[in-house]
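Look over this one:
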Amino acid sequence: MQSSSTNNKNSKAQQARRRFLQKLGLLGAAADSYTLLELQAKTTASAASGDKRWGLLIDTSKCASGCDACVRGCNTEHGIDASDSDLTRAQWIRKIDLKDKLTGKESSLPVMCQHCDSAPCVDVCPTGASFKRADGVVLVNKHTCIGCRYCMMACPYKARSFIHENLTEQKPSAPRGKGTVESCTLCVHRIDSEQDMQPACAVACTDEAHSAIVFGDLNDPDSNISRQLQSAGGSQIRSDLQLNTGVRYHGL
C-alpha cells in the first residue's frame, strides 16, 4: 500500500508534467478530470477483452449521398471544429462517393480507421504509440506519439490526421494533442462505459433515419452485426491487403 507522502509526490509529478505539456501546446485545454494519461490507462486496462472484436458494418444501400450525419455526430462527440475550412484540420470520418466505371453503379459511404487486425500503422510506429487493443480497437497513445507521421503514410485508407494547431475547448472524454496523430477510436469512452452505448456515428445515422451503420461484436455469432454479415455478407476495402478489418461494407 502506498503511503500518503508517496501519493502526494505522484500527484505533484503528474501536475508538473501536465503543466509542462500545456506549455508545449501538447495537451491544450483538456479537462482536469480526464487527462491523456488517464484515457490511455483506461483503454488498455480491463475494459478491453480479447473475447470481443468490436466492428462496424456499413450498408451502402442505406447510406445517402450528401448526408454527413455520421461526420457531424463524430465531430460533436469529440470536439472537432468542423467550421474550419483549412484542409489540415482533423477528420476522423469522411464521406466519399464512388462510381463503378463498368456498371455505372454509384455508392456513398463513410470511411474511417478500419481497425485492422494486422494494422500497418501499428507495424511502422517507432515508439509503439500506435497500438491495437485486445478487442481490436486501434488507438494512438498521445504521450508517446512523436508526430513522425509514419502511420499516416502507412495507412492505406488515409484515415489519420495530424494536429497542427493549438486546441481549445476539448471534450473531457476525448483529449487530443498538438503535434500528434489521431483517428477514429470507435468511441472507446462510450463502448467501455458498460451501458450498451453505440459509437456516435452509428447513433447519428440512426437518428437521421438511415440506420446504415451497425456496431457490435464480430466474435459473437448472435450479435446483430454478425447475423447481418452471415445473411447478407460484407466486404473489406482493399481486401487484397489481407488486413482483416473491423469495418465491413455491404453493397459495394
Strands lie at 54-59, 94-99, 106-111, 130-132, 138-140, 161-162, 181-182, 213-217, 247-250. The two ends are 56 Å apart (CA to CA).
